């Protein structure tokens, strides 16, 4: 899945984010004032981080969309922007771990606390356990934020709880509070729900790599750029941006410095896009898969917001092919149009399973299916605490129907690349195997299409599985089927 707000193809599936209703809280310190984000005060970084946590908790917002907007509106830059980013994303990413520690330090259920107090405690615990900010400074700063938002009355409570948190470091708290089994301990130590750790272990074929996988997933990800094929090379893009060429994608560049990548000239001018190297490799699989016969009609069936469509559109121009792109949501279809401007991509709005298309059948099709997004948790800080195991069944039903539709849009001898941003076996190998058996499609040797990338073979079925700890990419999955 390529976007955390609306899945590719515009199919909003699975259960929505869980929201805490502060009106149901019955006790705890007096409620702080809720409502619109406050303007920055003498501590703009923590103000912005706190407002981001509030939006995530109260409005089911996405941190990676909320915080950048606040930083722009308040003109927060430099070290303050970096601090706000570390605190807001870090607190969202580690929420389960932080809440476990706070529960041990608090004399009442967290659900009974006023929203501003809960957000402030999480912000404080993040600083105390997962940053190098001196404990006294961290506690003092958070107490002053609470004073400004909710008055003096709850400050004593917040101060007392955070001082208890500060009595141990993160490792000591994990030693004290972790479940007795190895998997449960690893899940808590690396701030993942247990069920997601279990999914990772299954996809990895055991627990040998689990600690490394969870640690990489808990780390702040690097920013990758993709050079538009035919317009600029990765070497040129790296020289312009000061980045490094990616190890696997011939079009990828790894940014080595901070800042907003949208401010870079090649991105502004449409010569490059911000795109994880794993997504670039999926687009390459779709373009490299061997087709029997003609190869001039390409289709991106779940195209929004357009990252892979840019890559495929540019490669289609080079190969003398045309690309059609589909998305169900009109606003996402517009994003695809904007992203692929100048590439001759024909964008269509409609349900990928029913949309009328100009070609009767395509030579190659990409279906980047809506999924749980478990492969991109490091980029979507709050997502790991919103998804639930029961979300998977509804999504896999949609994934199977989209893959069947993709085969329906493909001519005999043509190929379909199925991709998800998830390593969950139910969303990956199980979907591909079931549809191949049902339709008679031939499963191709997908790892052979990425000979430059090591250790990509999916453990329990066909396809390639990328991992942050192995490849430095999101945990993307791809498999290729040929229509008989």
TrEMBL record:
<feature type="binding site">
    <location>
        <begin position="302"/>
        <end position="308"/>
    </location>
    <ligand>
        <name>S-adenosyl-L-methionine</name>
    </ligand>
</feature>
<keyword id="KW-0808">Transferase</keyword>
<feature type="compositionally biased region" description="Basic residues">
    <location>
        <begin position="12"/>
        <end position="28"/>
    </location>
</feature>
<keyword id="KW-0489">Methyltransferase</keyword>
<feature type="domain" description="SAM-dependent MTase RsmB/NOP-type">
    <location>
        <begin position="199"/>
        <end position="484"/>
    </location>
</feature>
<dbReference type="InterPro" id="IPR035926">
    <property type="entry name" value="NusB-like_sf"/>
</dbReference>
<keyword id="KW-0694">RNA-binding</keyword>
<dbReference type="InterPro" id="IPR023267">
    <property type="entry name" value="RCMT"/>
</dbReference>
<keyword id="KW-0949">S-adenosyl-L-methionine</keyword>
<feature type="binding site">
    <location>
        <position position="327"/>
    </location>
    <ligand>
        <name>S-adenosyl-L-methionine</name>
    </ligand>
</feature>
<dbReference type="InterPro" id="IPR006027">
    <property type="entry name" value="NusB_RsmB_TIM44"/>
</dbReference>
<feature type="binding site">
    <location>
        <position position="351"/>
    </location>
    <ligand>
        <name>S-adenosyl-L-methionine</name>
    </ligand>
</feature>
<dbReference type="Pfam" id="PF01189">
    <property type="entry name" value="Methyltr_RsmB-F"/>
</dbReference>
<comment type="similarity">
    <text>Belongs to the class I-like SAM-binding methyltransferase superfamily. RsmB/NOP family.</text>
</comment>
<feature type="binding site">
    <location>
        <position position="368"/>
    </location>
    <ligand>
        <name>S-adenosyl-L-methionine</name>
    </ligand>
</feature>
<dbReference type="InterPro" id="IPR049560">
    <property type="entry name" value="MeTrfase_RsmB-F_NOP2_cat"/>
</dbReference>
<dbReference type="InterPro" id="IPR001678">
    <property type="entry name" value="MeTrfase_RsmB-F_NOP2_dom"/>
</dbReference>
<feature type="region of interest" description="Disordered">
    <location>
        <begin position="1"/>
        <end position="45"/>
    </location>
</feature>
<dbReference type="InterPro" id="IPR029063">
    <property type="entry name" value="SAM-dependent_MTases_sf"/>
</dbReference>
<feature type="active site" description="Nucleophile">
    <location>
        <position position="421"/>
    </location>
</feature>
<feature type="compositionally biased region" description="Low complexity">
    <location>
        <begin position="1"/>
        <end position="10"/>
    </location>
</feature>
<protein>
    <submittedName>
        <fullName>Transcription antitermination factor NusB</fullName>
    </submittedName>
</protein>
<dbReference type="Pfam" id="PF01029">
    <property type="entry name" value="NusB"/>
</dbReference>
């Amino acid at each position: 899945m390529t976007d955390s707000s609306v899945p590719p193809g515009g199919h909003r599936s699975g259960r929505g984010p869980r929201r805490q209703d502060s009106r149901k809280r019955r006790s705890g310190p007096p409620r702080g004032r809720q409502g619109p984000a406050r303007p920055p005060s003498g501590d703009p970084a923590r103000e912005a981080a706190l407002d981001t946590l509030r939006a995530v908790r109260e409005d089911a917002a996405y941190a990676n969309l909320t915080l950048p907007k606040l930083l722009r509106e308040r003109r927060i830059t430099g070290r303050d922007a970096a601090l706000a980013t570390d605190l807001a994303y870090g607190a969202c990413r580690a929420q389960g771990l932080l809440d476990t520690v706070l529960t041990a330090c608090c004399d009442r259920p967290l659900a009974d606390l006023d929203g501003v107090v809960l957000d402030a405690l999480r912000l404080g615990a993040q600083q105390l356990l997962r940053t190098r900010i001196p404990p006294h400074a961290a506690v003092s700063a958070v107490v002053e934020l609470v004073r400004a938002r909710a008055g003096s009355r709850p400050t004593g409570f917040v101060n007392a709880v955070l001082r208890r948190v500060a009595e141990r470091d993160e490792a000591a708290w994990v030693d004290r509070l972790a479940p007795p089994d190895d998997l449960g301990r690893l899940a808590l130590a690396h701030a993942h729900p247990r069920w997601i750790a279990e999914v990772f272990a299954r996809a990895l074929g055991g627990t040998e790599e689990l600690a490394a996988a969870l640690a990489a997933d808990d780390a702040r990800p690097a920013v990758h750029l993709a050079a538009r094929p035919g317009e600029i090379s990765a070497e040129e893009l790296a020289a312009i941006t000061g980045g490094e060429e990616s190890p696997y994608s011939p079009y990828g560049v790894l940014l080595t410095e901070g800042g907003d990548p949208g401010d870079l000239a090649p991105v502004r001018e449409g010569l490059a896009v911000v795109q994880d190297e794993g997504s670039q490799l999926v687009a390459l699989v779709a373009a490299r898969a061997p087709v029997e016969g003609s190869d001039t009609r390409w289709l991106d069936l779940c195209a929004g917001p357009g990252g892979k469509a840019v890559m495929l559109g540019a490669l289609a121009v080079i190969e003398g092919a045309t690309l059609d792109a589909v998305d169900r949501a009109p606003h996402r279809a517009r994003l695809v149009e904007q992203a692929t401007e100048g590439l001759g991509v024909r964008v269509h709005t409609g349900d990928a399973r029913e949309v009328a298309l100009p070609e009767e059948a395509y030579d190659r099709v990409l279906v980047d299916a809506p999924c749980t997004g478990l492969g991109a948790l490091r980029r979507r800080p709050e997502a790991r605490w919103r998804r639930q195991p029961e979300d998977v069944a509804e999504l896999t039903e949609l994934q199977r129907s989209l893959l069947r539709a993709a085969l329906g849009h493909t001519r005999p001898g043509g190929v379909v690349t199925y991709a998800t941003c998830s390593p969950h076996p139910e969303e990956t190998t199980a979907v591909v195997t079931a549809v191949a058996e049902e339709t008679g499609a031939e499963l191709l040797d997908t790892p052979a299409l990425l000979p430059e990338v090591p250790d990509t073979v999916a453990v329990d079925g066909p396809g390639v599985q990328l991992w942050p700890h192995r490849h430095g990419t999101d945990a993307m999955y791809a498999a290729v089927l040929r229509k008989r």
